[in-house]
Amino acid sequence: MRSWSIRVCAILLIPFLFLTAAPAGASVDLSAPGSYAVGYADVSVSASGRSFSARVYYPATSAGSGTAVASGRFPAVAFGHGFFQSISKYASLGGHWASWGTITIMPTSHGGLFPNHSAFADDLNAALTWMVAQNTTAGSRFNAHVRTDRLGLSGHSMGGGAGVLAAARNSAVRTVTNLAAAETNPSAKTAASTTTVPMQLVAGTNDSVAGPSGNQIPIYNAKLAPKQLRTIIGGFHCGFTDSGGIGCDSGSISRAAQQAITRRVTTAWLLYYLHDDTAQHDAVWGASAQTDPAVQFLGVQ
């Protein structure tokens, strides 16, 4: 029997309600906030010939805007938003990953009606390049705080597909975890066939916008191992965002439940592949992952 609890956590100085959901026997509930306070900063990125604004969520000494980065060096992940979606719709996930020690940068570019998928992929890589440069930039709050050899990519829908494109172009990337990754132009499926880094694709069975059969499954099938497809039972496309909107679908589970599962599954992946936390092997590849009653498992390690 899965235990459920309600926790209230302050991120961005705005209360978020977290419905936690951990499988029976889990030693740590990764859907709950981690040990770090969450800071955030709006930045102007200029790298690799590209310029755009972005928001960065990071482990901090205290919660809020522009607070000091916590002691230590942390992996960095670039996250791509979905089609016509504001990055604010992913605030809870960015803050959650930061609370577990992962810096998350979210470019605002290509948020209009006519995005360029290839250029968005380049922006995701440029965001990582910028984060790496901040590690040695005098006066940067991130100076000496970035693990430059632990970089990842993520995104939702269009941003997930762009993340696959970006991974195929960037040898510095160590892993990818995506939410309802959509096929793109150029093809994320084709890009996946040349990508060797571990990739996790998180999907929802009730997704009627960019469903598994036409998007995540073809990308998974094309992907070289290691690869994993985790499909949330009853999950829906807009259940990965903090709020819905025009054209959104619905599922058989609540948004709060889906987001709790998403936090748990993706955090375990990032801890395992970017933080070298081998204790997460069971949650990522072992019996706990393969018998999770809330999430279907398909994977090749």
From TrEMBL:
Q: Which domain of life is it from?
A: Bacteria
As recorded in UniProt, its EC number(s) are 3.1.1.101
Q: Could you list the residue ranges that cross the membrane?
A: none
Any one Gene Ontology cellular component term annotated for this protein: periplasmic space
Q: Where in the cell is it found?
A: Periplasm
Under SUPFAM superfamilies, the record lists: alpha/beta-Hydrolases
List the GO molecular function terms: hydrolase activity
Q: Which UniProt keywords apply?
A: Hydrolase, Periplasm, Signal
UniProt keyword Ligase present: no
UniProt-listed Pfam families: PETase
**In this protein, which residues make up the domain named PET hydrolase/cutinase-like?**
22-243
Q: Where is the signal peptide?
A: 1-26
Q: What class of enzyme is it?
A: hydrolase
* Keyword Signal set for record: yes
Quote the catalytic activity from the record. (ethylene terephthalate)(n) + H2O = (ethylene terephthalate)(n-1) + 4-[(2-hydroxyethoxy)carbonyl]benzoate + H(+); a butanoate ester + H2O = an aliphatic alcohol + butanoate + H(+)
User: Where does the protein principally reside?
Assistant: periplasm
Q: PANTHER family, per this entry?
A: CARBOXYLESTERASE TYPE B DOMAIN-CONTAINING PROTEIN, CHLOROPHYLLASE-2, CHLOROPLASTIC
Q: What is this protein called?
A: poly(ethylene terephthalate) hydrolase
